[in-house]
Specification:
The protein has 343 residues and is α/β, with parallel strands linked by helices. Helices cover 32% and strands 17% of the residues. The protein has a 12-stranded mixed β-sheet. α3 packs parallel to α4.
Length: 343
């Protein structure tokens, strides 16, 4: 083992940092853009899927995760599309356990829950730490309108994940006039569940770009509804978490208010999609195509790592101040939707 490799394995590289001093500790890996749901805030009506031969292999993704953990990444979240649609994802999570000795502290997954009844036990055995599950309505007809799928398999998946011993967060994206009547029902439902509810403001990442400010149910509107029925208290110490934390009758509830009260000032996240496009921000106007560099990492050559280090350092440093700064700039549109980058 040469001296460069020794330094890498000892995790002596500083964490990636942007121009505003924010160190990057979390990496989101989208393993597929494919999904069996067609959520209106995410999926276009006629999606054009990434070609399977263009996707990074799990071997290449593992090498990239190894590279990033040695540079300060402490949490990895597996996303999609729907990650459980990609064959081999459970084995990939098991492989990631080897990175804990290098500093990886948490491995998570965001899922629509449809396949959890089948996979929850295997995911727990593979070492997955926790799950975020999308549940935008408890009304069957409304759920179908939002997703084009049935509600019951998701509820069964949540139950299976709880039985497997997972820590669960329920994510609910609210859209005015579609499901904003679910704030109280969902809050009541989680009172009986061993789960944390997080309401999410509708963001301009829908597949067909129909988003409008008027469709956003704001944090203040959510709180007003909750306060009409429950004892609501704000908790301190948001830190780099995307959600502002509250208790509702003593149970934790979070609100991710990207539009009205974003957490950008402390953002510590980076993102890689399934075909090797890297984004320093969910709303970044331009990504970085790293597929070739990532696939060269498997050769374990220090030259490949040095080249990737240089490109990433420069790109991450240029990360914008946040969502509102990006939105205010000219030519800020980007032809990418939530299903391609995992939220």
């Amino acid at each position: 083992m040469n001296s460069m490799t020794t330094l890498q394995r000892d995790n002596l590289f500083p964490a990636f940092q942007d121009q505003f001093g924010r160190e990057k500790r979390k990496l989101r890996i989208s393993v597929t853009d494919r999904c069996n749901f067609k959520c209106v805030y995410c999926m276009p009506e006629h999606p054009e899927w990434m070609k399977k031969h263009n996707l990074l292999s799990f071997e290449a993704l593992y090498q990239f995760c190894d590279f990033m953990v040695r540079r300060g990444i402490q949490q990895i979240r597996i996303t999609g599309g729907e990650p459980l649609l990609r064959q081999g994802v459970v084995h990939f999570i098991a492989q990631l356990q080897a990175l804990r000795k290098l500093g990886l502290k948490r491995i998570s997954m965001t899922t629509n829950g449809h396949y959890l009844k089948r996979f929850a036990g295997a995911l727990k055995q593979a070492g997955l730490d926790d799950l975020n599950i999308s549940l935008d309505s408890l009304n069957e007809a409304q759920f179908h309108q939002l997703t084009q799928k049935q509600l019951q398999p998701v509820l069964e998946g949540i139950a299976a994940a709880q039985k497997a011993g997972f820590s669960i967060k329920i994510n609910a994206v609210l859209i005015k006039g579609l499901n904003d009547d679910q704030i109280i029902p969902l809050a009541q439902w989680v009172q009986q569940q061993n789960a944390e509810l997080r309401f999410i403001e509708f963001m301009p990442l829908d597949g067909d770009q129909h988003w409008t400010q008027q469709a956003v149910v704001s944090e203040q509107q959510i709180l007003a509804q909750l306060q009409s029925r429950f004892d609501v208290q704000m908790m301190q110490g948001q830190g780099a978490n995307p959600a502002r934390s509250y208790t509702v009758n003593g149970r934790p509830i979070g609100i991710i208010s990207t539009i009205t009260n974003s957490f950008c000032s402390s953002c510590d996240r980076l993102r890689l999609n399934a075909q090797g496009e890297f984004y320093n921000c969910l709303f970044a106007r331009q990504g970085l195509n790293l597929k070739a560099e990532i696939e060269q990492l498997s050769s374990a050559e220090s030259a490949a790592e040095s080249a990737l280090q240089q490109r990433l350092s420069s790109y991450i440093w240029r990360k914008e101040q946040g969502f509102h700064a990006i939105q205010q700039q000219a030519n800020n549109s980007r032809k990418i939707s939530m299903h391609m980058i995992g939220g």
